[in-house]
Amino acid sequence: MSIAVEGIRKRFGDYVALDDVAFEVQTGQLAAILGPSGCGKTTLLRIIAGLETPDAGRVFLQGREATELPVARRRVGFVFQHYALFKHMTVFDNVAFGLAVRPRRDRPSRATIRAKVEELLALVQLEAEAGRRPTQLSGGQRQRVALARALAVEPEVLLLDEPFGALDTQVRQELRRWLRRLHDALHFTSLFVTHDQAEAFEVADSVLVMSRGRIEQRGTPEEVYDAPATAFVHGFVGTTLEVPAFRSGGQLAIGPLPRVADPGPDGEVRVVVRPEDLVLGGVGTGWPGRVVRVRMVGPLVHVDVALDGGTGDPLVAELPVERYRAGPVAAGDVVGVRFSRYRAYPANAHGGGGG
Amino acid sequence: MAAVLPVATFPARTPRRVLPGFGLSLGYTILYLSLIVLIPLVAIFTKTAELGWDRFVHVISSPRVVAALALSFGTAGVAALFNAFAGLLVAWVLTRYDFPARRLVDALVDLPFALPTAVAGIALTAVYAPNGPLGRLLGALGITVVYTPLGIVAALVFIGLPFVVRMVQPVLEELDREVEEAARTLGAGPRQVFARIVLPAVWPALLTGFALAFARGIGEYGSVIFIAGNMPMRSEIAPLLIVTKLEQYEYASATAIAVVMLVISFVLLLAINALQAWSQRRLSGTAR
Amino acid sequence: MSRVAHGSRRLLIGVALLYLAVFLLLPFAIVFGEAFAHGVATYVAALTDPAARSAIVLTLTVAAIAVPLNLVFGVAAAWAIARHDFRGKSALVTLIDLPFAVSPVISGLIYVLVFGANGWFGSWLAEHDVRVIFAVPGIVLATIFVTFPFVARELIPLMQLQGRDEEETALSLGASGWQVFRRVTLPNIRWGLLYGVLLCNARAMGEFGAVSVVSGHVRGLTNTMPLHVEILYNEYNPTAAFAVASLLALLALVTLAARAMLEAREPDLRHATRAVQVAQATSP
Q1: Would you list the domain boundaries of chain B?
Q2: pLDDT at site A35
Q3: Residue B7 is nearest to which of A20, A24, A70, comparing CB atoms?
Q4: Which chain B residues touch C150 with a CB distance below 8 Å?
Q5: A&C contacts, CB < 8 Å
Q6: Cβ-Cβ contacts under 8 Å, B109 against chain C
Q7: What CATH class does B34-280 carry?
Q8: What is the Cα–Cα distance from A54 to A39, expressed in whole angstroms?
Q9: What is the pTM of this model?
């Protein structure tokens, strides 16, 4: 595998940034570290790059231990969130930097460097901007210069810190797809950090969800979304509705719904549901509730339902327009609510629902 | 991948520094700082210690020394207070109004920083001398400036002006105009806006500027000695008294006065640091 | 804007400009007025006088030694402080500022106490026939002391403002430490460096109090330009005194103009330097 870390710990004073983190990224994969701000994801990326030293733990790159290796010898490409372009150099010189600073015996000839830089600038579609300075470029162009610069030294792994964080929505969409295509074309191993689940799911082959310095879950985007390992992950990767439930004698009771077998200790349980997994039927088909409001939101219909005996705000079901048209409801209707899918977590685990 | 090893098997690592040259640059910094600044400064305290406590008290409580210290602190205080008002006015005009040559005027505010003190000293003496342009005017009103404590204040006013302006100016620039406009929409008059919105915001910076001008005024030498007349008990500032004692080879006395001034300067330096931290906290709190 | 507001605006601008004209510009202008009071020939004669010439040479020599030394120190200190984290950093920054808080007279005095006849090394120096106090080395030392923090205080906030990202990127691209410094750090700080050197130089050439204490005022040997101004003035030769002073005033003007140009060129500098400038001017 290309990237592996084990037992990584890092504290800043009293603050525990990383608490026993371990994972690996397979060669050629594009992986994302997903988590809210302050969860330690950037620190982890910087430790892999060698820009930060872990208090404990080991880093492996290409199967070789790199924990003690200085950053210059790790052969990682690192793209900073704000790109860190060399302001006083042209785009061309920025991209050429990594080749130009090589010791004389390893340094390619000027012509080779020029050819290589021009090739990379063509790849990121910035041939015309070669003579410009970073301040004369748009955000998306700067991002691409930073990428080309990192790729110039032919890194074994590419690390990107919030690669799309500083861009506006439109450019961000385009660059995501472009990065994915670039990755598929070049087949390097990439790891990027993001707080945006849509970004992680759209771009990455595998996702690591982090919270409070720990890895909560790793898996494909499908696995993470469909089978969140913890209530935190459930809440972080999508909208979460929470319904009261308790378990006794190995049976789970969700409101008045029929009990189902669910082994585990007795007591309160957090049952969480995605809005698209709410099924509305006639009275008697599920948990009785009253429709409070119906709204068309683009291709979806949002139906607010107040459950009988439910605590807190109404649940918001999201159904595709066709399904709604098959059985339309209106405010004031009494319906039965079922859950086509739900997940149960221990009630005292950390991490909130919401999202 | 093998199972995660327990952390205890890893000895605590000393952090490897990412950017190189730390040891060299810090080592050189501390060495140079020690040789040029710290060790020579220690000399002043060891020399005073030789004096003994009783002699030390005797020296610094002699009437001439007390008068010099009182004069230095008094004139520095008056000048700094004057500059607090004048500096606030200049900073206000420079940030709030646009007028021809504003940038030039802005640059000229730093003139007292850039002009060597001896040059300032003889120039101010020429300006305030009985036959000088300002001296003639003030003389007609019966006011003598040169060779009096008033002359010292005039010199320190010149020297201290940029401090208040340069401290207050950035705060006024960062001040959100919308807050003032909001106050106006709520019915506040211009004076109320200034007193209730602007002044509280610039207060820490104004105080810092005052303290800086004051600290500078206490130790000022070059610009003062020409205009002061340097009469013992009347217009002899403490730094000059140190020089006089040195010229009479009274090293111990000179050092004793210097220690008093140094200690007060250091206390002021710490106070200014605290003030600046406070000012910056306030500024970043309001601006972002 | 209401008429009242317009009126008070004019009044405030008027008062501020009048104040600056009388208290700042007038003293500055009078230097040149007095210098040329007896014509250009007298002015030129005052500057070409052997004592004046040797004072000019000594001033340039002292600055040529003190400024580069403080430049190297400033870069080293800024590299340590703005590019690394360590315990006691803020204490170190305060210590670097220390010379700003010391009266110039005391700045001279400390070297008299260390190297003077009755000082720590006084007898040793006398035995080896080395003169520091009342000689050029003392003047150089005192000048280094009073200009000590200028370059460092200019670079530290600038480099902190710029962050470490560019240097870290350069490292990850395989650059060596020296390459990072020369190709990334240095180009980024060059204007700030120039700015710090300008201010350091202006102060080095214009320092009076500290140098006065250690110089001994030997005409033609240990007289710098500001000291020469004092001697001429005290000898009731104001025209010559102002002639030499006019050169120093010109230096101040050039420094201010260069500063304004640098700030116009690099807006970043303005923010970093304004705060710094106040700190460095704490020194009398």
Answers
A1: 34-280
A2: 94
A3: A20
A4: none
A5: 65
A6: 20, 24
A7: mainly alpha
A8: 16
A9: 0.84
